[in-house]
Amino acid sequence: MKEWFGKYILGLPPLASENGQDVDNLIIYVHWLMIALFIGWIIYFFYALHRFSSSRNPKADYVGVRNHASSYIEIAVAAIEAVLLVFIAVPLWAKAVDKFPAASESTVIQVVAQQFGWNARYAGPDGIFGRQDMKFVTADNKFGVDPADPNGKDDIQIWNEIHVPIGKPVIIYLSSMDVIHSLKIISMRVCQDAIPGLRIPVWFKPTQVGRYQINCAQLCGNGHAAMTGGFLTVESQADYDKWLKSKSNSAGSTSFE
Fold first, then answer.
1. Under 8 Å CB-to-CB from 244, ≥6 apart: which residues?
2. Are 124 and 251 in contact (CB under 8 A)?
3. What is the three-class DSSP state of 241?
4. Is residue 254 scored above 60 in pLDDT?
5. What 8-state DSSP symbol labels residue 132?
6. 127: left (phi over 0), alpha (psi -120 to 50) or beta
7. Cα four-point dihedral sign 105, 210, 142, 99
8. CA 17, CA 39: separation in Å to the nearest integer?
């Protein structure tokens, strides 16, 4: 019922991540509440037109309503909203920000946004990211990799293209090189601001093979619309390994604009 309501009534986009189901559930429950309130207020509106019409009440009543039905309704609505907040929204947020999967069991990617696109960085064949420092950030070193660290020599840097294997958690460490951007992958139900000077982790677990557009959810300049040029590709582990190997042949080089 929830899936049918979300797909055909709300028009939610296809879901391709495991943890995104909780996001959809919250959206659906909130809309159920809004529909119930809408119907209830419409019924009350027509009741009030009939009950307090001039033909039924030729003489005005200056005392007004004497019962507490409206107060009880308000309490009931507040209680339902509290249930949605405490038992759905808060646990969903806690799961998203506190219960991260182990890095050893996940695909770990660094992403740096810039005007107007997405830079992605993977650890090279050694599986170790090179040391980073903000003082090393330049137009040609967007991740601030220490050029003296040998662990960073084989790291892989990609422009506007992120590949991940299906069925395995993905941890993205997100930042920005210039202004505030926002990484939004609709099918994964992921949306996280990218803020200069901060590295913010966000994670999801893809469940469907496919190619998904990456959007920027913050107005970041005149070329904001170009931020839709990035894509997330979810593929089998074998295809992912093959892709990663093809990129590692040119590891250390920059494949940007």
1. 122, 156, 163
2. yes
3. helix
4. no
5. B
6. left
7. negative
8. 33
